[in-house]
Amino acid sequence: MQKAKQILKEIFGYDSFRPLQQEIIESIVNKKDCLVVMPTGGGKSLCYQIPALMFDGLTIVISPLISLMKDQVEQLRQLGVETALLNSSLSQKDYNLNFTNVKSGKAKLLYLAPESLQKDDISTLLNSVNVDCITVDEAHCISEWGHDFRKDYRQLGNFKKSFSSAVCIGLTATATPRVQDDIMKNLKMDHPKKFIASFDRPNLFLQVIPKREPFLQVIDFLNEHKNQSGIIYCFSRKQVDSLHDNLSELGYSTKPYHAGLSDDERNTNQDLFIKDEVQIIIATIAFGMGINKSNVRFVLHYDLPKNLESYYQEIGRSGRDGVRSDCLLLFSYADISKINYFIDQKEDERERLSAKVHLEAMIKYAETEICRRHPLINYFGEVYKIDDCAMCDNCLAEEDDNDKVDVTVYAQKLLSTLKRTGEVFGLNYIIDVLLGNDTDRILSNNHHNLSVFGVGRDLSKKQWQILAHQLIRKEIVIRDSDYGSLKLSQSASDVLFNNKKVFGVIKEPEVKRKKLKSIGIEYDQKLFELLRIKRKQIADKKGIPPFVIFADSSLIQMAKDFPQTENEFLRIGGVGVKKLESYGSIFLSIIKNYLKNNDVKQKSIKQTTRIKKSALDEPRHRVVAKAYNDGSSITELAEEYNVQEQTIVNHLARFTNEGNRIRLDGLLERVTIDKSKQKKVFNEFDENGTVTMRNIFEKFNGEISYNELHLLRVIYLNNRKK
Questions:
Q1: Domain ranges in the chain?
Q2: How many beta carbons lie within 10 A of that of residue 635, not counting itself?
Q3: So what's the architecture of 618-720 in CATH?
Q4: How far apart are CA 232 and CA 240, in angstroms?
Q5: Which pairing describes strands 477-479 and 486-488: parallel, antiparallel, or unpaired?
Q6: Which fold has domain 2-196?
Q7: What CATH code would you report for 525-597?
Q8: How many other CB atoms are there within 10 angstroms of residue 227's CB atom?
Q9: Is residue 422 over pLDDT 90?
């Protein structure tokens, strides 16, 4: 692997491999077929690109989209790697040049679409050269159980058999265990090894909010992401066009993308977005598979996606550079009905059943009250073991219990209304009964004579909607996935007849989204902007996307470390020898001039080292916990990282839950409840685990605050390690 590490540093500019990369590369170099399931931005491409530079022969990369191939080829060429692609987008001159480079052995990698494998000239070419490796990108497309099934991919198993000495790799970011097995079977892999990386993308902030006034909610969100690149996904072409027109009128930089546009218009709009000429692309699911743009800072879902595979892949198009990115989903029950309508139009019963199962998983994710990473990551067969991700709305909301009140009486009113109306109506009908609205439907059903008619006038319609959604998330109320009617769960009887307490909010919760910034790293934003402008100028001259020159993460590191020599510049992540030669003098000159003309305030060496480790080497919770163990206080760390003290406590809990120890002095002093209550809480942890605090908070009728519970969790986990 010494050769592989040398290539990693000299060509790609990185000091060490990410998790699993080294093992995968070893397997490929030893000609062992393998399936690689790794999230977007996890470093899949390096897994085959480094072996390609070690093999004597050719590496074929089969990819579904021309735009993706063009980006990857351009990135490799910027690194000094001879790469070719052959497809219909090329001029005849370029096609012939690439063809010759492959035939002569000059090109180490060849990118092809699956359709191209059927062409006679391609077939003749490949049979005339030594093929060492066949890489199938977006391999889930080969499975009928996957969400992007493509018939052309079905032929790849037979194609692979024609090159018996070549190793075969399947790469995908999204594949359930069933899809994984289907990929290996259809690619006819020979005793393959499976490499499944964690599906967690820790730099993505996940949030779901009720869709109330969607256009205004979009405006609010975009105003928090000024000058940032992002994607808005809509269910229909009509919605894409409408949102594009309305946002454009207000001066936002947007372009539409859907199957109703011409090929030229779609390609132009995508190219403008990739090259940072347009800030926001508004699209249907037709957009984005394999988009290689690394500096997408947000993904907003205007409508509910049909399944978690699509959702995961779509949010995965943001934050590929490891910098924090926001993922917001606007959720409404009307969207469920809309998707169900289209599912019911499917003629194949098996397809209908499969689609409904997928939709139900998506709804459970949107409705969950626990950490959003649990239902999302568990769906793909991985057990997510972290108590508190600190990067989703639910985990952050759990830190604040000020808005939570006893809503038991209101819950009983709603549950009684459900029971007395027969558990066959949807939410809006139930709310009309509670509010005493004598609609024609209520009158015809004689429900205006029920004792519950009008008992809910002390809350507004919106408040009843908020409460009902909480009862659904708590699984006190069950929503029929086909018809939307509401029913009582078994636990509802405890609320109705045993006076089990229910805690929640009856006012619309605020959208809590921390200001967008890079995780665990502070940098000079003025210098970053100067570097970003220069990057754009160079990219425009070359006719390539700016992120091909340098990723945002590289510019951020430059704006933090202020490299002033070539050796220091080489230490920047993503800077290899070729990029140093091409761009080093340009960017070093900007940095030196900036330092000369500005009074740059640099942090202490100790703090700078911590921030650097958190951003580039270790997750922040580990860096914070180690600093705490070294003697820093919770208050000092909260000030250093500009976060609430409760967030530091959450980091300590996460660190402890991974099997590590922390010092207890500094924590014990913060606990204010007596020993008997502490013991009761510890008993609850013994019985129910420490994944979520909500159940325990409610068990004690809100008498013990979330802050206390979080502190006790850290102490409990730490004592358990003894």
A1: 2-196, 204-397, 405-504, 525-597, 618-720
A2: 11
A3: Orthogonal Bundle (1.10)
A4: 9
A5: antiparallel
A6: Rossmann fold (3.40.50)
A7: 1.10.150.80
A8: 9
A9: yes
CA angle 565, 570, 574 (to 5 degrees): 140
Give the residue-averaged pLDDT of 649-655. Answer: 80
**Could you tell me the two tokens for 203?**
């730099």
449 against 290, higher pLDDT = 449
With b meaning 16 or more CB within 10 Å and e meaning fewer, what string describes 365-393? bbbbbbbbbbbbbebbebebebbbbbbbb
Mean per-residue pLDDT, 199-221: 91
Residue 97 has phi, psi (to 5 degrees) of: -65, -45
Q: Is 33 helix (H, G, I), strand (E, B) or coil?
A: coil
For residue range 36-68, list pLDDT tens digits in order: 998 877 788 999 999 999 999 999 999 887 777
pLDDT tens digit sequence for 378-401: 888 888 877 778 889 888 775 455
Q: Report CA torsion sign: 681, 687, 692, 697.
A: negative
Q: Residue 487: phi, psi to the nearest 5?
A: -135, 160
> What is the average per-residue pLDDT within 213-235?
92
Which parts of 295-435 fold into alpha helices (H)?
308-315, 333-344, 349-367, 373-379, 393-397, 408-420, 427-435
The residues, any chain, with a CB within 8 Å of residue 708's CB and separated by 6 or more, are 671, 672, 673
pLDDT digit string (tens) for 695-721?
A: 777 777 777 877 788 888 888 887 765
> What is the amino acid identity at position 487?
K
For residue 493, the one-letter residue type is: S
CB distance 115 to 155 below 8 Å: no
For residue 340, the model assigns a pLDDT of 84
pLDDT for residue 147: 57
Q: Provide the CA 476 distance to its chain's centre, in angstroms.
A: 29
pTM: 0.69
Domains 204-397 and 618-720 share a fold: no
CA atoms lying within 13 Å on the CB side of residue 509 = 26
Work out the pLDDT band at 607, boundaries 50, 70, 90. very low
Helix, strand or coil, per DSSP, at residue 188: coil
Closest of 108, 101, 160 to residue 136, by C-alpha: 160
CB 179 within 8 A of CB 140: yes
Domain at 204-397, CATH from 3.40.50.300, 3.40.50.1390, 3.40.50.11540, 3.20.20.70: 3.40.50.300
Q: What is the DSSP string of 224-273?
A: TTTT-EEEEE-SSHHHHHHHHHHHHHTT--EEEE-TTS-HHHHHHHHHHH
pLDDT at 616 over 50: no
Judge whether 201 and 39 are in contact, CB under 8 Å.
yes
- Of 662, 632, 634, 660, residue with least CA distance to 647: 634
Q: What b/e string do you get for 433-460 counting C-beta neighbours within 10 Å, with b at 16 or more?
A: bbbebeeeebeebebeebebbebbeebe
Q: Are 214 and 247 in contact (CB under 8 A)?
A: no
186 contacts: CB under 8 Å, gap ≥ 6: 142, 143, 153, 154, 156, 157
Neighbours of 541 (CB within 10 A): 8
Q: What is the CATH number that goes with domain 405-504? A: 1.10.10.10
